[in-house]
Amino acid sequence: MIELEGVPELIDPVMVAAFEGWNDAGDAASTAVAHLEREWKGEVFAALDAEDYYDFQVNRPTVFMDGGVRKITWPTTRLSVVRVGGDKPRDLVLVRGIEPSMRWRSFCNELLGFAHELGVELVVVLGALLGDTPHTRPVPISGTTSDADLARRMDLEETKYEGPTGIVGVLQEACTHAGVPAVSLWAAVPHYVSQPPNPKATLALLNRLEDLLDLRVPLGELPEDARAWQVGVDQLAAEDSEVAEYVQTLEEARDTAELPEASGEAIAREFERYLRRRDGGGPASGGHATADGGDGSYLRDSPGGGRTRPPMPPKPEPGTQPETETDQRPGADPRPETDPRPGAGPRPESDATPGDEDSSED
User: Which of 1, 127, 184, 276 could in theory staple to 23 by disulfide, Cβ–Cβ 3.0 to 4.6 A?
Assistant: First the structure.
């Protein structure tokens, strides 16, 4: 039994987890959890033993100087807790780390031990994958679960995926077998601008988490960073006619696929979300994005206030398509089989076609 000292009794706790690596295209998911920890001043109360789960030749420790003394930070997974105020205060248990190199079942069991000890009522795992989605459109976010009842109650997709999986899928299934309700939220990141950071995808994940948990997240500088990222990629695309043509092809495919969604019911649903976010006297710090991942008008805005933009992704070579080969068979998943970032593994799983906001992820 895990015994936690110094952790107060929590109010309606929800565990929110993200892991760097295979399940984290553009670092969108891990950055989202780091943002929650920073904005709500999370306090770390536990860390998993790095020796048990990590290959240090794959995830190397780092050396730093602390007051003239050399110290080492080991790759691991840490847990912190934050209190979300408001009319209905609740606690979030934040889990942030690196996808483990070994002993995944023990890794998940240890996290579930913390969840049981803390009385966690729901586990939400964030992930991000590479997809054929244009950077000029809203970031597709899919919410999935293995629990049919939970899918109906929370308006989620019941996953039907079969194939290779990452720690997100393994942890979700471990929760299901342990009787702990679990949900996965996935952001689709454009494969042609896969380099981190991707603040637009991070912002979209946080907005979806707001809706799922009925809370308001202080966004800080994320909306401004998303605007700067958008403008930077727009400029790069405009400088290369072949890249611009490819983006236009993705836009047309996305818009055609979404035409049935432009119904009165869908518009009313988005308006209700907008009203919920404004409830309480205006947006939280930094404002709130609309369904398109911004503030409703940022797609071509210039970054304001003289702030430095996030690093722009390198321009693709003229005439190139996705960074890795894709499966072009009818009905096949066209996303790259591997994450092109150094040291990354194969892409996360999905049942959906790119750009489908109602896709299923494990």
Answer: 127
